[in-house]
Amino acid sequence: MVTTTVTLFTPPPPTKATLPSFPLPKTHYTSSSSCSSTSRRFRVRAYSNTSKFGNFLHLKPAHQPEPLDFDLPWCHPSDRSRFDVIIIGSGPAGTRLAEQVSRYGIKVCCVDPDPLSMWPNNYGVWVDEFESIDLEDCLDKTWPMACVYINERKTKYLDRGYGRVSRKKLKQKLIEGCVSNGVKFHKGKVWQIQHQEFESTVLCDDGTELRGSLIIDASGFASTFVEYDKARNHGFQIAHGILAEVDDHPFDLDKMVLMDWRDSHMGNEPYLRANNSKFPTFLYAMPFSSNLIFLEETSLVSRPVLSYMEVKKRMVARLRHLGIRVNKILEDEKCLIPMGGPLPRIPQNVMAIGGTSGIVHPSTGYMVARTMAVAPCVATAIAECLGSTRMIRGKQLYAKIWNSMWPIESKLNRQFYSFGMETLLKLDLNGSRRFFDAFFDLKPYYWQGFLSSRLNLKELAWLSISLFGHASNRSRLDIVTKCPAPLAKMMGNIALEYIR
Ligand SMILES: Cc1cc2nc3c(=O)[nH]c(=O)nc-3n(C[C@H](O)[C@H](O)[C@H](O)COP(=O)(O)OP(=O)(O)OC[C@H]3O[C@@H](n4cnc5c(N)ncnc54)[C@H](O)[C@@H]3O)c2cc1C
């Protein structure tokens, strides 16, 4: 039996646009008051230049992603018992966990304002990551290789397949799994969670109350349901992406461009070049055909976050220089990903997965493949507690589930990946080029393992030594002069994790 009680209670606060709960106070180059007269002059030039040369920024996306056409089993007010698990959010993380946990016969309800809407982001993953979890049929395009333009003279070719996730196929597959395992859906926005000793109640903006033994927050980066006991000193990845119809482009169709660090497009744009030298951005590109390409100008990580307008202006200059004329924008995306920072307090009575759980790779911003891979482990732990044979609830349940997501080894490894982010934050354009030049010279086991969060602490330590060995003298100097503080912080945090 399932309880879905529609009760009268104090109405939720008026709905307002959800503000990100992560700190976003400042950006580089947004404070005009601190702008020198020179940079103000450059800024004016930037606008006139971009409008003069075929700026694509005024183009509006021609398509909105279509929702899935599916008959969902909605949760009905006449259902009378409580759920085992209530999942807030049906993004990639929430839907995957619902599909996995319901395989064990656990009663799951997924709450989302629009459970059938198509996910808005374009997701890229390494093909082997999806193959290892049997999701390769959810890639709609793969490239046998990737490449990294270090500078105008040097390109690195990476012998590792890359794929674009078909949001439609992945969501369809996960939702089909949910439906056949008996997951119920509720259309609504959760605005509050109340906890009792062995169960919790979620309150939705339509007045619905849902009760469950375990509440899982999969509502993304802007969640306010998960608590932290340390200051959230994230770095931020920010990017502007477009899926565009173009006259032509210069990229090989059998390689995706993981990073293009070239900056020759800034030859005539000194106002952009100076900033880019300090806080660099690169181009990420997925060429689908000679006329269709996904292009994304990306700031890998910055703190405070780089201005979005700055990123867009750099993209306009780059495409103009590459001779890419955008005829039509099919989709666009603003990418803002908090990276690194502390994990949520562990344990706590709301469990988290996805963007709100600290699982984003602190050095790359990737998350989808890892979330797909970790969900089965979390689901097994939930089944051990709430399945038919065991009845572990309350504090014991929360501790077990949080530990399935963040066992001690994963917490220690994350310290290392966060150290990677702190190092990247200190690198300017040339430093970043030298770093990635050495990084992609490592044995594939190491660079691939690092990017896919597969290495253990010993291997990560070996990677660091090896990276130092491969680095140029300038790069070694960067490491020696810029890394001691983050290194000491990482060692301290690792020691603390051991003591706890
Ligand atoms: C533009 C962009 C591009 C990205 N590209 C990649 C990539 O290429 N590869 C990669 O690995 N990662 C990528 N990421 C990072 C990460 O994988 C995505 O952000 C991913 O969508 C996070 O998944 P999620 O399920 O945790 O959250 P989301 O996808 O944000 O889904 C959250 C869901 O919860 C719902 N929700 C929110 N609040 C409530 C509430 N109060 N009640 C009920 N429901 C609620 C939302 O409507 C939404 O459906 C990208 C991120 C962005 C922003």
Automatic annotation (TrEMBL):
GO BP of this protein: carotenoid biosynthetic process
Pathway as given in its UniProt record: Carotenoid biosynthesis
GO cellular component terms, A-Z: plastid
Keyword Isomerase recorded: yes
GO molecular function, one term: oxidoreductase activity, acting on paired donors, with incorporation or reduction of molecular oxygen
The entry's keywords: Carotenoid biosynthesis, Isomerase, Plastid, Transit peptide
Keyword Isomerase: yes
InterPro entries, per database record: FAD/NAD-bd_sf (IPR036188), Lycopene_cyclase_b/e (IPR010108)
Pfam families from the UniProt entry: Lycopene_cycl
Superkingdom: Eukaryota
Subcellular location(s) per record: Plastid
Family to which the UniProt record says this protein belongs: Belongs to the lycopene cyclase family.
UniProt-listed NCBIfam families: carotene-cycl
Protein name: Capsanthin/capsorubin synthase
Organism of origin: Arachis hypogaea (Peanut)
